[in-house]
Design brief:
Blueprint lengths: L3 H17 L4 E4 L2 E4 L2 E2 L3 E4 L10 H11 L3 E5 L2 H4 L15 H10 L3 E5 L30 H18 L10 E5 L4 H7 L5 H18 L5 E5 L4 H4 L4 E5 L5 H11 L7 E5 L16 H13 L3 E4 L14 E2 L7 E2 L18 H13 L19 E2 L2 E4 L10 E3 L14 E8 L3 E6 L3 E2 L1 E6 L2 E7 L6 E6 L3 E8 L16 E2 L4 E2 L2 E2 L4 E6 L20 E9 L5 E4 L5 E6 L2 E7 L6 E4 L7 E9 L8 E5 L19
Parallel strand pairs: 4-5, 4-11, 5-6, 6-7, 7-8, 8-9, 10-11
Antiparallel strand pairs: 1-2, 2-3, 12-13, 14-34, 15-28, 16-27, 17-23, 17-27, 18-22, 18-25, 19-24, 20-21, 20-23, 25-26, 28-33, 29-32, 29-34, 30-31, 30-33
Helix pairs in contact: 5-7, 10-11
Organism: Hymenobacter aerilatus
Family: Belongs to the glycosyl hydrolase 35 family.
Keywords: Glycosidase, Hydrolase, Signal
């Protein structure tokens, strides 16, 4: 018998040889051909940025066990271009090349969606926030400064992944050109169609010049191919359930033939703070999937596994009722594989259906990862957020400055102004982006909220008093014409009683890009004042868990330095997912920024299941799911 170490070396050598074997994938005679053989794409969308790297393989195994043969993923430009001139393809979950290699090891093809625009309920649709600082740059347009920036991004990405295309022995079979551009063309009729088309063609050319080989595809609603389709790329129809409509649309823009693909079929839907959690019935999903399977339609579940908008990565929408609709932290999406990676009833039903139709072997479903609950975490130290000002040098300005003007992308900014004389009247902040807690002499007097279109508040300020506004960026809009108006903070003059408040604004930057050091601050906890809670807690055996934020107000949480995202009592989300791979056996640390602090907290609780559908306040209904 061979020694175990030699067997491992032989296995690794075998895997390496397989990975280096070159293949072909092409569109020919109206079909997808892999090594010359007709191949159906049964794909599921999963974004590596939304799943901790140690869990990638488990989620990919779940997809394989569902009966899928392909994983599709967006690449978020701003996730890798972390600051101007700074690129990161290694830390946290950023190693996109490793994700692609892991998918190949699990027997999955990869569809790459590099954008540069992604949408995806992700902050700014994937664009770096600082693009807006260049006044000559117009995003998503035939604009040279923007195209120059896109070229840098595309070349940086290509250096990481072009060697993983199918022709080089990798699993990447197709690459998307832009994303849902037909929707944007429809929303921006102020721009000539020819200019839109020049931009789309430029992106395709940049991808080609960077070393992406295709086949290329575009992804739009079937009725929007006129603006979204581009020569040399297969048009695919998002959300199209009618097979004949799909074929008619593709035929018109693809020489009268297929292949026919729905690049985004929605088995769930996105969710906003303050609006109901959207669910799509299992029966509706299985009926549609069977229609695709019976008719030879290629498809991609968007999402098959959503994951989580960790940190400040969640984006936002808007509609006629809300100036902004911030997305919740969970990206569960009512997908087939839930946020913590569990098989849902929808998963089980679709898996049974796939087994009836696919000709390849469908493996067994992997066991779920361990789940634990933790005894109540006693919050033994509290620090008032305003005390952090003592160690900071404020920026002094005649008027409030935006996040971008402050060279800050995310988090919070505290705007403070002293009044020599007493003042009273209606405080108006029409340029609020997005949520402000208002204080007079440290006492909270109200909130302003772009999600509820609330921009004014009556205030009374005594002589020698101080007005302060703690402003939160709740995520940049990621979809629609308003994506070009995405600066944050306070972006217009503030008025009191109709008079502009100018002069002597003191501005404190609170980006919360990392856990603050609270060791030198005194312990304080007063209701109504923004407060940082911190504690150590012991874990006997790490596993996934969920922080129960019911009873809390609004804020963010770090566990062992990992930013879990934001919570907000209005719901529908009431828990925060803590991946077990971020916990340690023994001592762990938690830090919570509680912005409202209506009721000072004594302990933090955990539960063994997520709570994503407990809405506390409904101002208007969300747009319907498909």
């Amino acid at each position: 018998m061979l020694p175990r170490c030699l067997l491992v070396l032989l296995l690794l050598a075998s895997l390496s040889t397989q990975a280096q074997k070159k293949h072909t994938f092409e569109i020919k005679k109206g079909q997808f051909l892999y090594d010359g053989k007709p191949t159906q794409i049964h794909s599921g969308e999963m974004h590596y940025a939304r799943v901790p790297q140690p869990y990638w393989r488990h989620r990919l195994k779940m997809m394989k066990a569902l009966g899928l043969n392909t994983v599709a993923t967006y690449v978020f430009w701003n996730y890798h271009n972390t600051a101007p001139g700074v690129w990161d393809f290694k830390t946290d979950s950023r190693n996109v090349a490793q994700f692609i290699k892991t998918a190949q090891q699990e027997g999955l093809f990869v569809i790459l969606r590099p954008g540069p625009y992604a949408c995806a309920e992700w902050e700014f649709g994937g664009y770096p926030w600082w693009l807006q600082k260049n006044k000559d740059l117009v995003i998503r347009a035939n604009n040279q400064p923007f195209l120059d920036s896109c070229r840098v991004y595309i070349n940086k990405l290509a250096a990481q992944v072009k060697g993983l295309q199918v022709s080089k022995g990798g699993p990447i079979i197709m690459t998307q050109v832009e994303n849902e551009f037909g929707s944007y063309v429809d929303q921006r009729k102020d721009i000539p169609l020819e200019e839109h088309r020049k931009y789309n063609a430029a992106i395709k050319q940049q991808l080609t010049e960077a070393g992406f080989e295709g086949p290329f595809f575009t992804s739009d609603a079937a009725g929007l191919f006129e603006g979204g389709a581009t020569p040399g790329a297969l048009p695919t129809a998002n959300g199209e359930g009618n097979v004949e409509a799909l074929k008619t649309a593709v035929n018109q823009y693809h020489g009268g033939k297929g292949p026919y693909m729905v690049a985004e079929y929605y088995p769930g839907w996105l969710d906003h703070w303050g609006e109901p959690f959207v669910r799509v019935p299992t029966e509706q999903v299985t009926k549609q999937v069977e229609t695709y399977l019976k008719n030879g339609v290629n498809f991609n579940f968007y999402m098959v596994h959503g994951g989580t908008n960790f940190g400040f990565t969640s984006g936002a929408n808007y509609n006629k009722e809300h100036d902004i609709q911030p997305d919740i932290t969970s990206y569960d999406y009512d997908a087939l594989i839930s946020e913590p990676g569990w098989a849902t009833p929808k998963y089980t039903a679709v898996r049974a259906l796939m087994q009836q139709y696919v000709k390849y072997r469908v493996p067994a479903v992997p066991a779920p990862l361990p789940v634990v609950t933790i005894p109540d975490i006693i919050l033994n130290k509290t620090v008032e957020l305003f005390d952090l000002k003592s160690g900071m040098q404020p920026i002094v300005s005649a008027q409030p400055l935006s996040f971008e003007e402050l060279n800050q992308g995310h988090g919070y900014v505290l705007y403070s102004r002293r009044f020599a004389q007493s003042a009273r009247g209606t405080l108006q902040v029409p340029g609020l982006r997005d949520y402000a807690t208002v204080y007079v002499n440290g006492k909270r007097v109200g909130t302003l909220n772009r999600q509820q279109n609330k921009y004014e508040l009556d205030v009374q300020i005594p002589a020698n008093g101080t007005l302060e506004l703690l402003v939160e960026n709740m995520g940049r809009i990621n979809y629609g014409a308003e994506i070009v108006h995405n600066t944050k903070g306070i972006i217009e003059p503030v008025t009191l009683g109709g008079a502009a408040l100018t002069g002597d604004w003191q501005i404190y930057k609170l980006p919360f890009d990392k856990v603050p050091d609270l060791t030198r601050y005194a312990t304080k906890n007063k209701a109504g004042r923004p407060t940082l809670y911190t504690a150590s807690f012991e874990v006997k055996q790490p596993g996934d868990t969920f922080l129960d934020m019911r009873g809390w107000g609004k804020g963010i949480v770090f566990v062992n330095g990992h930013h879990l995202g934001r919570y907000w009592k209005i719901g529908p989300q009431q828990t925060l997912y803590v991946p077990g791979c971020w916990l340690k056996k023994g001592q762990n640390e938690v830090v919570i920024l509680e912005q409202q602090n209506d009721t000072p907290q004594q302990a933090l609780k955990t539960v063994d299941k997520p709570i994503l559908d407990q809405l506390q306040s409904v101002k208007s209904a969300t747009r319907p799911a498909p």
